[in-house]
Each structure stands twice: as C-alpha cells, then as structure tokens.
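@channel sequence for tomorrow's demo:
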Amino acid sequence: MIISFENVSKTYDGKDIALVGASFAVPQGAFACVIGPSGGGKSTVLKIIAGITDASSGVVVKPKLVSMVFQTGALMPWLTVMENIAFGLHGKGLSMSRIRSTALKYFKMLDLQGLEGKLPRDLSGGQRGRVGIARALAVNPHVLLLDEPFSALDPQMTDELHKDIIKIWKETGKTIVMVSHSIEEAVALSTMVILVKDYAVKKVFDIDLPRPRHEHALPFMREVRQIKREFFK
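structure tokens (generated this afternoon):
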C-alpha cells in the first residue's frame, strides 16, 4: 500500500477535533476519492497525506514526494503558463534544457498548446486547472492529490477535465487521491471511495465498473445508491 492510515486522529490545540481513529489503505496506482459532508474531516485526511498538517496520533504511511492541486489552481499570477508548470523543477539541480523539456512534456499532455505565454488572469477556470495539474505532475510525484479541482467549473468543462484526468491516470500510472463533494463524480472516476463524516472514516467502497462509465447505467446507479445510504445515515 502506498498510503495507509492506522487509527489516525487529529486535534488542534488539544481540543478541537478534526479526525478520530481513521483507518484505510490506498494501493499503489489506485484512484481514490474522499467524500463526505462539509466540515466532516475529508480535507484533514488530504492535508495529512500532503504533509500540510501532522496527525496527532496513529500511524501514517505515505511517500515523501506528493503533489497537491488546489481548487483554484493556486498559480503564480506573475508567471506565464510554461513558467508555472516549470516552477517546481527549479532547485532540483536540473539543467535548463531538462527543465524546459519536462515542462513541455506535461504542457502537451494537458493540451495547453497556444497558451504558453499567457498569464493566469488570461485563462479560463478549466485552463487554470489544467496548468495546476501539469505543474503538479512535472515534479514526478508518487501521489497526486486533488482538492475538489472541478467544483467551480461548469458541467461541460467538468466533463472534459474528467476525461483528461482519467487519461492522465492511465498514462502515468500515478496514485491519485481526490476530495470530491459529489458522489456521482467519485463513482465516475475512482477505483475506491473513502467516506469521511463526523471526523471519522465510516466506510471504504471498492468501485469495479467498466470504463467509460455512464451515470444512467444500472451498475453505476447501484454504486451511487449504496454510497448514499451510508452518506445519509
């Protein structure tokens, strides 16, 4: 397992509870979606994996090299698209030619042609999301973390980025852990769904459906109903 939590808890100032006794494991190469009500603990799980915060107790196993894509993309506003993608490569002892070739690889992978000299303010929400994903992948992380990356986008752009992220997952073999507010989105994308509510991991669902997945197919709807029953308990 590339990520595992064993009885992991998190409190702030010793009293504000953020996570209690969480246990789950993510296999290498999996696409895991973390879902749950707002304020229930799912963001805390992602922050612990990212190393943004430490667990207060329990055992966390995770790789050292983890990249996180935030909801807004969190791009450097003064840098161009290509400079943003290359940002994390500086300071790694790479030659400028290697930095350029690596950035170009992921620039092309995310279909950003024609945007290399643009600043973030000149991009659409979907384009900013693609740049954020390209920047995260450029450092070749063991795990890619996505924090509700599609929640602010319109349905058409969301559908396009869903196809992009599945393509990237298949091509790179990366382990992906994504926080989502949508059960349907989680079932459409993932190989496993981790339900976090009331500051605890309530259940882990294995999603074994053929791709492409169709929301109106009976097996898809059965998975959604099963998760919703637990979600709304």
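heads up for whoever presents: The longest strand covers residues 16-26.
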